[in-house]
Write a structure and sequence with these properties.
350 residues; TIM Barrel; 8-stranded parallel beta barrel; 10 strands; globular; binds 1,3-dihydroxyacetonephosphate
């Protein structure tokens, strides 16, 4: 089955009340772990690549690898999404390569660091939607600014993050502005800012309402019940992986991610796409550290990643199960096959 746009996956998720983890991929190992977990749990898949991942892995090779995964796992509905495109040009380059979904992140200027005006955001997002929809590609927009309420934003992982700091009001999505934004741009999915941030250092304690603004999701969902919401910065930063890293020579300070129960709660309030990158990085590098510590004379790349692959696969499978996506892969691909194999009236020759 060819790569598919994100919209029908999210529509299916909304119809059946589940959420999709959207996993960031950087290399063969991360992609393979996601696909194996999806096959094991029969789940639809969204994999995404940031601009820096595209640069690191050579995006032409990255896309070829994802297309090969679609052939290798033919029953799994698979979407390839550009994570945090910083301009319509970046999104266009992704579409030209074969990405089937793009995020136009106009919440920040094209430098990815300075908060942008609402007008700028609407302009770049609307232009991207026009371009993408003409090619059957889905678009995610963002309103509000991703960043921890503890630190007021600040530098985050993967070259993404604010230069200065912002107040709570400046960071969090304004629900009424979200309504206006969706109407003005026609986005397929909307990323909302609720106090989460990229990377491992999200919270210095288990987040409660003062740090994780679940009420903002509820307020947006009430106004936009049919809009697919996206939660960024949704790694749980498992304590077991922090311990694994630290037991093998790492030096991670104690930290807290987004609790799985809160993500499950958000799915009940219209969150359909849940972005996860850090948890996979921790599973892979923690396992590599553990292997190299136990085998100091080894230089076996496959040996080094074997446990990491298994740990990432287990983590992905757990997310598919907990978010309710498990069991929906074949159903969605059957539906896609029946809709694409029935020619529309206009397509039938007279
Ligand atoms: P984490 O760093 O929490 O995994 O978030 C990733 C993300 O939101 C990518 O857009």
């Amino acid at each position: 089955m060819p790569l598919m746009p994100m919209r029908p996956i999210l529509d299916h998720a909304a119809e059946h009340g589940y959420g999709l983890p959207a996993f960031n991929i950087t290399n063969l190992e991360t992609l393979l772990a996601v696909m194996r977990a999806a096959e094991r749990t029969d789940s639809p898949v969204i994999v995404q690549a940031s601009q820096s991942a595209r640069k690191y892995a050579d995006d032409m090779l990255l896309v070829a690898m994802v297309k090969a995964a679609a052939e290798r796992f033919p029953t799994i509905p698979l979407c390839l999404h550009q994570d945090h495109g910083s301009s319509p040009e970046v999104c266009k380059s992704a579409m030209d390569l074969g990405f089937t979904s793009v995020m136009m992140d106009g919440s920040l200027e094209a430098d990815g660091k300075s908060p942008a005006s609402y007008e700028y955001n609407v302009d770049v997002t609307r232009r991207t939607v026009e371009m993408a929809h003409a090619r059957g590609v889905s678009v995610e927009g963002e309103i509000g600014v991703l960043g921890s309420l503890e630190t007021g934003g600040g530098e985050q992982e993967d070259g993404h993050g604010l230069e200065g700091t912002l107040s709570r009001e400046e960071l969090l999505t304004d629900p009424q502005q979200a309504v206006d934004f969706v109407k003005a741009t026609g986005v397929d999915a909307l990323a909302v800012a609720i106090g989460t941030s990229h990377g491992a250092y999200k919270f210095s304690r288990r987040p409660e309402g003062d740090l994780l603004a679940m009420d903002v999701i509820a307020a947006i969902h009430e106004r936009l019940p049919h809009t697919h919401l996206v939660m960024h910065g949704a790694s749980t930063v498992p304590e077991a992986l922090q311990d694994l890293i630290n037991a093998s020579g790492g030096e991670m300070a104690k930290t807290y991610g987004v609790p799985l129960e809160e993500i499950e709660r958000s799915i009940a309030m219209g969150v359909r796409k849940v972005n996860i990158d850090t948890d996979l990085r921790m599973a892979l590098t923690g396992s590599a550290r553990e292997y190299l510590k136990a085998n100091p004379s080894s230089f076996d790349i496959r040996g080094m990643h074997k446990n990491g692959l298994a740990r990432m696969e287990a983590l992905c499978a757990e997310r598919f199960e907990r978010f309710g996506a498990a069991g929906h892969g074949a159903r969605l691909s059957n539906r896609m096959a029946s809709t694409t194999s029935t020619p529309s009236k206009a397509a039938v020759p007279a």
